[in-house]
Amino acid sequence: MAELLGDQAEGLRRLLAHNQPRILAFLGAYPRVGVSSLILNLAAGLARMGRSVLVIDEHNGSTSLTTRLAGHTRRELLDAVRAGAALPRVMQDLTEGVKLLPAAHAARHFADLDETDTEQVRHAFAELASLPDVILIDGQMPGQTSSFSLAAQEIVMVMGADKSGLTEVYAQAKKLHQEFARRQLQVLFTRTDAKEADNLFQALLSTARRFLDVRLNLLGVVPADERLQQAGRALQPVVDSFPHSPSAMMIKELAGRIDAWPVSEQRLSQPADLADCLLRSSRLSGNAVSI
User: Fold this and answer.
1) Across 46-50, 195-199, 267-271, least confident range
2) Nearest Cα to Cα of residue 78 among 43, 113, 53
3) For the segment 145-155, what is each residue's pLDDT rounded down to a tens digit?
4) Is 54:135 a contact under the CB 8 Å cutoff?
5) Domain spans of the chain?
6) Distance CA 92, CA 291 (A)
7) Which helix (H) or strand (E) holds 284?
8) Which residue has the higher pLDDT, 25 or 162?
9) Architecture of domain 20-290 in this structure
């Protein structure tokens, strides 16, 4: 009987977890490290596995996904909130199963919304038919500006082969741990090889173990690959354009790892719950900016 009840409990946990999105935020160690391209490709890789993906873009520079794919005139999340518009009207289809939500201004200003606008945020998200399976946030560093990154169950710090990036990644880890109580962080390398990435990671890990009570995990290494750059120039995922290239193979492996991670513990049962989660993140990170 106990074994049967245990099986039933596990089945119930799986059923409840089915509608819980995985939420990841990606932070670049420095500009042009390739975070936006990485997110586009991971989203496409996850979509190929049958997952619905929402990409939230906190950037509005010339290399952001929003600008590259939708142009500077694209309306964004904050516009929808203030105009009382449905959220799907400001979302864009990136590829099958992947939607982009421009949110650069929203991420910075959600912390300052009054009660009326806060309720409008919930109303805007309530217009979504359902929660996505995975949410990928192209984020800003919390504490430097208001950000949605703290809504993520996992924060991924991205760097390349440049050794100077170690200083910035360590600074990010220190801030996320000391100011926001993050005990675990992921590290992802781009445009380098596995040996160089491992050397850099071991150096980072050695310093972190001495001075920080935080666990750093090496999520993976996306190699330098001309096919990845070609696909990027065409604004296409490399997993679609060159599915057998080294970078595409690694992207698909990373997507599989992410898909196997536990789902969020925040118990988001409906789209309006996601709105509350993003509002909390913006206010928490915004408070850190003002201190």
Assistant:
1) 267-271
2) 113
3) 779 999 999 99
4) yes
5) 20-290
6) 36
7) helix 271-290
8) 25
9) 3-Layer(aba) Sandwich (3.40)
